[in-house]
Amino acid sequence: MDKQLVRDAKSRFSEIDNLVLKAGDGLKEKPDVFTIFVSNLPYSISKNAIEWLAHTSFSHGVIMVQKEFADKLLADSKRRRAISIIATRAFEITPISAVGRNNFSPPPRIDSVILKIVKKEDLTEKLIETVNKIFSYRRKTVKNILRQFNKESTITKRVDDLSGDEIISLANKILEK
């Protein structure tokens, strides 16, 4: 969104023919087709940005996020959230480097992590929304969650006992007509 930063980058990298730099809020605009995504994601909208990237076609990217958010993206089954399932389904995520708060001036109160993301699969906005809904019922059994969506099941496991693939399957079952 920093127009001056884009002007400076265009000036510095003008010899690169296949590089297009634009200023704006990508989450509010339908982007042109792009291949590589690089961003220091605004920490306050990291979840929304990851969901947007999950349903946007591109090849790979490098992002910097708050350390606690990176931990959520890569969480094990007992600590994961809906965003963990969405991110690990849509991307292969590799931590590249820790970035301590002392690398900034003035230093923030938090540490950051640089992540490499490689797109595995585009998710639909409906699937992302449904995974988020499932996690709003995470203490209920699958049987009771499906009942909320007028679906039937005899599965008595809870969301925390399901694998990521099983949660995606559950979301797809909810979306079936």
Secondary-structure map with pairings?
Elements: H1 3-12, E1 36-40, H2 46-54, E2 60-66, H3 67-73, H4 82-90, E3 91-99, E4 112-119, H5 125-136, H6 142-148, H7 164-175
Could you spell the SSE succession in H and E letters?
Answer: HEHEHHEEHHH
Helical amount = 25-40%
State which percent range the strand residues make up. Answer: 15-25%
Shape: elongated
Total helical elements: 7
The strand order across the widest sheet is 1-2-4-3
- Number of domain units: 2
Structural class: alpha+beta
Unreliable stretches covering 5 or more consecutive residues? none
CATH topology of the largest domain: Rossmann fold
- Round the Cα radius of gyration to an integer and report it: 19 Å
Text of the CATH class of the largest domain: Alpha Beta
Number of strands: 4
Give the mean pLDDT: 89
Largest sheet: 4 strands, mixed
Concise summary:
With 177 residues, this protein is α+β, with helices and mostly antiparallel strands. It is built from seven helices and four strands. 37% of the residues lie in helices and 16% in strands.
Report what the structure shows.
This protein is of the alpha+beta class. The protein folds into two domains: 33-122, Vaccinia Virus protein VP39 (Rossmann fold, 3-Layer(aba) Sandwich), CATH 3.40.50.150; 127-175, no CATH class. It contains seven helices and four strands; from the N terminus they run H-E-H-E-H-H-E-E-H-H-H. The protein has helices at residues 3-12, 46-54, 67-73, 82-90, 125-136, 142-148, 164-175, and strands at 36-40, 60-66, 91-99, 112-119. The chain has a four-stranded mixed β-sheet with strand order 1-2-4-3. Strand 1 (36-40), helix 2 and strand 2 form a beta-alpha-beta unit. The longest helix is centred in the C-terminal third of the chain and has 12 residues, at 125-136.
